[in-house]
Amino acid sequence: MHKRSRYGWLLAAALIAALLAGCGGGSKEAAKVKVGEVTRSLFYAPLYVALSQGFFADEGLQVDLQTTAGGDKTMTALLSGGIDIALVGSETSIYVYQQGADDPVINFAQLTQTDGTFLVAREKKESFDWDDLRGSVFLGQRKGGMPQMAGEFTLRKHGIDPHEDLELIQNVDFANIPAAFASGTGEYVQLFEPQASIFEKEGKGYVLASFGVESGRLPYTVFMAKRSYIEKNKEIVQRFTNAVTKAQRWVEDHPAGEIADAVLEFFQGTDRDIAVRVIERYKAQQSYAVGGVIDEEEWNNLLDIMEQAGEITERTPREAIVDNTFAEQALR
After folding, report:
1. What CA–CA distance (Å, rounded) separates 53 from 219?
2. Least crowded by CB within 10 Å, which of 2, 115, 178, 244?
3. What is the bridge-based pairing of β-strands 221-226 and 85-88?
4. What gap in Å lies between CA 275 and CA 280, rounded to an integer?
5. 321, 106 in Cβ contact below 8 A?
6. Ranges 141-145, 211-215, 253-257: which has the least confidence
7. Cis amide linkage into residue 194, ω under 30° from 0
8. C-beta neighbour count of 166 within 10 angstroms
């Protein structure tokens, strides 16, 4: 081979190799993100859509999803570094901030915009009035958690003092509330889906009202991370938010049956008809946010509910622990 031709061939080979490496031909490894969800629920359908439809993968992310049952456990996992991103109620970030944290938790993408619980009665009622709860035994959610606060807010809205006008039970662990009601505790219970619809199908309980409709829009479940993590991983947080936003739009544009088929792999043993009913119920009351921006009105409603529940003594400004720039960019 001619010397110049041989060198030209080697140069071309080197250029091709460099181009392949630069274009990802070397199969660049996806960035790993550990995410903790406060519970496994069809209320979080857009999260599972982002996983099943490959939206996280499209953004070059490998998401390790784990269920960290309860807001307190989820926040502990986040603060200790057990997870990178938490999906939990915004009230937990307020508690951390008001304790004077050096590295506060920042809300960066809202997933749901209403409470996700329903009032379930043990006995079927032809007609329902909130006054029916007076003097009853009510199995509520954990004290200080957003479900319980939204529940109390709704009761007060209808003229019922939750601590004076009924027997309120709050000492049952979050994960055990459905089992406690099924075993005979309480005449009424505040439940997430799909448990409420499962009880209806089994004849163990009957949905009477939605706490989400009654308590209005608020940043109910939000993706959040420590400020230090966000500052070091802005590109990852942006890509994560992009995937979530794409999933939210997908859920908005697809019927409940298609959404159920996309997420049922995360709910082994759940009846498809139940899943469709649950998703229809959440879509009808607009529980799924379309875009992760937390607006001022929603934030103030959250603070009103927490203030009325006696869980805060001062109002945390939205700008202190909310960063909407990632969600705004994702929408653009």
Report:
1. 25
2. 2
3. antiparallel
4. 9
5. yes
6. 141-145
7. yes
8. 19
- The arrangement of strands across the sheet holding 137-139 comes to 167-169, 137-139, 188-192, 117-121, 206-210
What gap in Å lies between CA 184 and CA 162, rounded to an integer?
20
The answer to whether 181 and 191 are in contact (CB under 8 A) is yes
Query: Which residue type, as a one-letter code, is found at position 303?
Result: L
pLDDT at position 324: 98
CA–CA dist 289, 281 (Å, integer): 14
DSSP secondary structure code for residue 322 in this structure: B
State the sign of the Cα–Cα–Cα–Cα dihedral 215, 306, 252, 323.
positive
Residues in the chain: 332
Position 231 in a domain: yes
User: Residue 17 corresponds to which tokens in the numbers above?
Assistant: 């190799």
Q: Exposed e or buried b for every residue in 223-250, given b needs 16+ CB within 10 A? A: bbbbbebbeebeebbbbbbbbbbbbbbb
Same domain, residue pair 320 and 225: yes
Q: Whole-prediction pTM value?
A: 0.85
Q: How far is CA 287 from the centre of its chain?
A: 10
Say whether pLDDT at 176 is over 60: yes
Last residue of a domain, one of 215, 246, 275: 215
In a domain, 179, yes or no: yes
What CATH number does residue 52 fall under? 3.40.190.10
**Do 137 and 254 share a structural domain?**
no
- Show which of 215, 240, 259 is a domain's final residue: 215
Nearest to 87 by CA among 96, 79, 95, 78: 78
* Environment class of 271 (CB within 10 Å of its CB; exposed 0-12, middle 13-18, buried 19+): middle
AA identity, residue 233? N
Q: Is residue 239 part of a domain?
A: yes
Only one residue has tokens 């009477």, namely 208
Q: How many CB atoms lie within 10 A of CB 47?
A: 28
Domain that holds residue 61: 31-114+218-331
Q: Output the pLDDT for position 11.
A: 39
